[in-house]
Write a structure and sequence with these properties.
11 helices; VC0802-like; six-stranded antiparallel β-sheet; eight-stranded mixed β-sheet; about 400 residues; alpha/beta; Carbamate kinase
Length: about 400
């Protein structure tokens, strides 16, 4: 059995923790598995390195930034290889380039294009544990690149997919995926199995365990993912195809995203193509729009509301103020949150949305906007009711049972 294990920054936080990781890696090796390990930099190290680059310039050259940032994972991969060798196990560390991770030429947020697996396969055949520096690759032009936020997870899933690994284990400081954030609702339960699609919805709406880029890649390559804690022996959460989940719950989890802003444009010309123009200029500026509501036009004018990531508010203001000069007003509201109900069982059960609406109404929580898909109902509410809404929905769908 071929296993790819990924350890995050907290797991690799110091030499003692790296030794603990080495012990866990050896458990898999001693069980007869071939093992590839992908590691992050030590916790906080990437931010420290970014700080160094900005000491000299507010906008440092991105090629040089990638050269600096990629050093963090090279340090931890080499330290882990040394720890494994001290235990009598053949081990070798590889940079992204050494591991054959080929990306496009975009610095600081490159996309993986292919993985040349020849060297890793040869080393596995020679009974090495291969330790890969995550978060990095090499562009087609030979330059070092980094993959952006969540890049080490992405490295692990991509390597697992390319090697056709039997399992990809993502080790973090939490022991799996929960029905909601346990810090908000102490009755949150760990989910044993969840589908790729459900995990994608949860990841895109604020669940911090995995980023959606990694889940998308795992689904594309059909890589079974397990997310679990590196600080305990507890079973984690298996993320797999829907077909591998015998009994599908109607609702699997409640997600909360406080990083939301609502943009309200009043008195827009109600003519064909106006929405395409507005959202086209936002797309050109790489601003992601989530939920959209357009009112019925009157007297040739209409209102359009939509939501964006709160971090993109200033960029949105700049784009719209240049583009729209004949509107009555543009308002921005950052005091909102998006709460979402997610579950593959919703495909075959009616009444899930109405249950949510009734439960929130009982708590006098007003819903400003609604968006639905086959496996999700999302609602925009006042941020001051966000955590109450999560606890209410978690209870009404009996996720605490």
């Amino acid at each position: 059995m071929l296993v790819v294990q990924k350890y995050g920054g907290t797991s690799m936080g110091d030499c003692e923790r790296i030794q603990n990781v080495a012990n866990r890696v050896m458990q898999a090796k001693n069980a007869g598995h071939s093992v590839v390990v992908v590691v992050s930099a030590m916790s906080g190290q990437t931010d420290t390195l970014i700080g160094y680059t900005k000491y000299f310039s507010k906008l440092p050259n991105e090629r040089e930034v990638d050269m600096v940032l990629s050093s963090g994972e090279r340090v931890t991969s080499a330290l882990l290889a040394i720890a494994l060798e001290s235990m009598g196990q053949k081990a070798i560390s590889l940079s992204g380039r050494g591991a054959g991770i080929i990306t496009d030429n975009t610095h600081t947020k490159a996309r993986i294009e292919m993985i040349e697996t020849g060297r890793i396969k040869q080393l596995l055949d020679e009974d090495y544990i291969v330790v890969v520096a995550g978060f990095q690759g090499v562009g087609e032009n030979g330059e070092v690149t980094t993959l952006g936020r969540g890049g080490s997870d992405l490295s692990a899933v991509a390597v697992a997919g390319a090697l056709k690994a039997d399992l990809c284990e993502i080790y973090t400081d939490v022991d799996g995926v929960y029905t909601t954030d346990p810090r908000i609702d102490k009755n949150a339960k760990k989910i044993q199995k969840i589908s790729y699609d459900e995990m994608l919805e949860l990841a895109s709406m604020g669940a911090k365990v995995l980023l959606n880029r990694s889940v998308e890649l795992a689904k594309k390559w059909n890589v079974p993912l397990v997310t679990r804690s590196s600080f305990s022996q507890d079973e984690g959460t298996l993320i797999t195809t829907e077909e591998n989940i015998m009994e599908k719950p109607i609702v699997s989890g409640i997600a909360l995203d406080k990083n939301q802003a609502r943009v309200s444009i009043a008195n827009v010309s109600d003519r064909p193509g106006i929405a395409a123009e507005i959202f086209g200029v936002l797309a050109d500026a790489n601003i992601n729009v989530d939920m959209i509501v357009q009112t019925i036009g009157r007297d040739g004018r209409t209102d359009i509301d939509f939501t964006i990531s709160q971090t993109e508010t200033d960029a949105t203001k700049n784009v719209l103020e240049k583009f729209l000069d004949s509107v009555e007003s543009i308002d921005y509201d950052c005091n909102i949150a998006k709460v979402s109900v997610v579950g593959v069982g919703m495909k075959s059960h009616s009444g899930v949305a109405s249950t949510a609406f009734k439960a929130l109404a009982k708590e006098n929580i007003n819903i400003m906007m609604i968006s639905t898909s086959e496996i999700k109902v999302s609602m925009i509410i006042d941020i001051k009711y966000a955590e109450l809404a999560v606890r209410t929905l978690h209870s009404v769908y009996e996720l605490d049972k």
